Amino acid sequence: MVHTSLDVVDEKISAMGKALVDQRELYLGLLYPTEDYKVYGYVTNSKVKFVMVVDSSNTALRDNEIRSMFRKLHNSYTDVMCNPFYNPGDRIHSRAFDSMVTSMMIQVC
């Protein structure tokens, strides 16, 4: 399911490149809905892709809340990448990043 969603992300990115769409809009929206799950996507300016899988039965989450969660994730990811002691390509070992992701997961559940 996630691999299929990454294909949809690639399609949306290539469609944005052809059309004159506002490049500041990084949220891609709902990518791949199924009976059990909804998959949302987000891509950064440097083409890093974030995918979020949410249970379809969770009707409390709205589109603007998902968008806000992706922005928080992006900001926290940027903070990790800006750390001078982080080597790109290494696994992320950051308590702040882990706690932010954990708090987002608790919020969703």
| Span of the ends, CA to CA | 20 Å
Main sheet specs: 3 strands, antiparallel
**How large a portion of the residues is in β-strands, by DSSP E?**
15-25%
Question: Residue-averaged pLDDT, rounded?
Answer: 86
Quick one: overall form?
globular
**Overall number of strands:** 3
Structural class: alpha+beta
Low-confidence region ranges = none
Spell the H/E element sequence: HEEEHH
Widest β-sheet, arrangement of strands? 1-2-3
What is the number of helices?
3
Helix content: 40-55%
Gyration radius, rounded: 15 Å
Keywords: ER-Golgi transport, Transport
Organism: Canis lupus familiaris
Pfam family, one: Sedlin_N
Protein name: Trafficking protein particle complex subunit 2-like protein
Keywords for this structure?
19% strand; alpha+beta; 3 helices
Gist of the model:
The protein is 46% helix and 19% strand.
Structural overview:
- Keywords: ER-Golgi transport, Transport.
- Belongs to the TRAPP small subunits family. Sedlin subfamily.
- Its main location: cytoplasm.
- The protein has 109 residues and is of the alpha+beta class.
- It is built from three helices and three strands.
- The protein has helices at residues 2-18, 63-81, 95-108, and strands at residues 27-33, 37-43, 49-55.
- Strands 1-2-3 form a three-stranded antiparallel sheet.
- Strand 2 (37-43) and strand 3 (49-55) form a beta hairpin.
- The protein is globular, with a radius of gyration of 15 Å.
- 12% of the residues are buried.
- The mean pLDDT is 86.
